[in-house]
Automatic annotation (TrEMBL):
Transmembrane portions of the chain: none
Main enzyme class: transferase
Family under the similarity heading: Belongs to the aspartokinase family.
Protein name: Aspartokinase
Length: 418
């Protein structure tokens, strides 16, 4: 039994969906669970729609119409006119119509999940219909009845016992007669509300399914040849890793290598299930295999770039030392605002923390900290992490830029740059 994950880039248009069908046709003798993300940049568009709805913006209907037209055009290109999937997708979009007719609920994260989740619900309808149209027996599954989470909207915490029980209860029998197609990124609460697992969380969904089902392997089909030493969109002359250990890959994703969601690897490592990262345009290429005891010599440093960073400098109002109780209060405030710390450093009189900028989360966090502390910040910064670094590589990457914070350990250098 294999689990495949197809991300937004792989199904961004009709040729992408056709290619997905071609990729899986080589695995006709296998039992397959296929996890699919929203098409192309739909999640970003749905985020924009959510903001427009909550802010009462005039462009709300225009944004929604564009999202619908994008999907209807793909359906038309795949199936022509009058295929039943058109109604399935239209009925799914109606859930947004109902929501935006009413005044916004006061929990932004709740609204976000109910709207943004529609991206995966419609993409999987289209992919499932295409696979059936191509003669595969394919079953569409609503993942919200299988991935059970608490009600932490936008970062649902998975109840693993309940989730594995649901998955192992139903899926093996479905796989006897069909491929299973379901949504990445989504979960459901015990009150049947929709949650999401955090941006780019479809890799994590695939890992949950693979782990609960004891899959032979999980393959994530990407628009890159495999895992490279750096993002090829930012660096030339990248090298591909043929193999990586779970540990190295976990470190890379922890520091922000966006090619794999950070929560993906641990469940796979625990169950000793290899993760293959392969190019969806060249399905026969070997890609990268992540497994225990992988052999690789790092001839070039691994470079991880995180843009849009904010560096906060926090000090006490009376300029006394930063004590443990101050730190406890600071971390409590970060946790309450669901903001993750990327890098931090203490000195006698101030505490510096580097975080991702988020338009919804930053200002409320800043105001909450300001209630007790003196707080300054610098934004539009870049956090660069080099693993297996050389002095030369650090010099090259920081040349001509101001270093606002730096940390060095035996294997890793991190710098916050302006
Ligand atoms: N070290 C890396 N190796 C390969 N790709 C990387 C790396 N770091 C960042 N990326 C980026 O990750 C992207 C693929 O991940 P992602 O967009 O999440 O895929 P998908 O949404 O299709 O699952 C690539 O297009 C590439 O720009
Ligand atoms: N569609 C969601 C979940 C996801 O994982 O997408 P992708 O696989 O395209 O990164 C997002 O964009 O966050």
């Amino acid at each position: 039994m294999l689990v495949f994950k197809f991300g937004g880039a792989s199904v961004k248009d009709a040729p992408g969906v056709i290619n997905l069908g071609n990729v899986i046709s080589a695995y006709a003798d296998k039992k397959l669970v296929i996890i699919v993300s929203a098409m192309g940049k739909t999640t970003n568009a749905l985020e924009k729609l959510t903001r427009a709805y909550v802010n009462g913006s005039d462009d709300m209907n225009g944004i929604f119409e564009e999202i619908k037209a994008y999907h209807y055009n793909i359906i038309k290109e795949l199936f022509g006119d009058n295929h039943p999937v058109f109604d399935e997708v239209a009925n799914t979009f109606v859930e947004i119509d109902w929501m935006i007719e009413d005044e916004p609920h006061d929990d932004y994260d709740f609204i976000y999940d109910q709207i943004v989740s529609i991206g995966e619900l419609v993409s999987t309808r289209i992919v499932n219909a295409w696979l059936n149209h191509q003669g595969f027996a394919s079953k569409w599954l609503d993942v919200r009845g299988y991935i059970h989470t608490d009600n932490s909207y936008r970062e649902g915490v998975v109840d693993w016992d309940k989730t594995c029980k649901s998955i192992t209860g139903d899926i093996p029998s479905f796989l006897e007669s069909s491929i299973v197609v379901t949504q990445g990124f989504l979960g459901g609460t015990s009150e049947n509300f929709t949650t999401t697992l955090g941006r780019e969380g479809s890799d994590y969904t695939a890992s949950i399914f693979a782990s609960c089902l004891g899959a032979e392997s999980l393959t994530t089909w990407k628009d890159v040849p495999g895992i490279l030493n750096a993002d090829p969109k930012l660096f030339e002359d990248t090298v591909k890793f043929d193999e990586l250990s779970y540990q190295e890959a976990i470190e890379m994703t922890y520091y922000g290598a966006s090619v794999i969601h950070p929560k993906t690897l641990k469940p796979l490592q625990n169950a000793n299930i290899p993760l293959l990262v392969k190019p969806f345009m060249h399905p026969d290429a070997p890609g990268t295999i992540i497994k225990e005891n992988a052999a690789y010599t790092f001839t070039k440093p691994v470079i991880i770039v995180k843009n849009n960073q904010v560096l906060l400098s926090i000090s006490t109002t009376d300029y006394s030392f930063i004590s443990e109780s101050h730190l406890s209060e600071i971390f409590g405030t970060f946790a309450a605002h669901h903001v993750k710390v990327n890098m931090m450093q203490t000195s006698a009189l101030s505490f510096s923390i580097c975080i991702d900028y988020s338009s919804e989360r930053f200002m409320p966090l800043f105001q909450a900290l300001k209630a007790t502390f003196r707080v300054k910040y610098n934004d539009e910064l870049t956090l660069i992490t080099l693993r297996h670094y050389t002095a030369n590589a650090v010099e090259q990457i920081t040349a001509g830029r101001m270093i606002l914070m730096r940390q060095t350990s035996r294997n890793t250098v991190q710098v916050v740059l302006k």
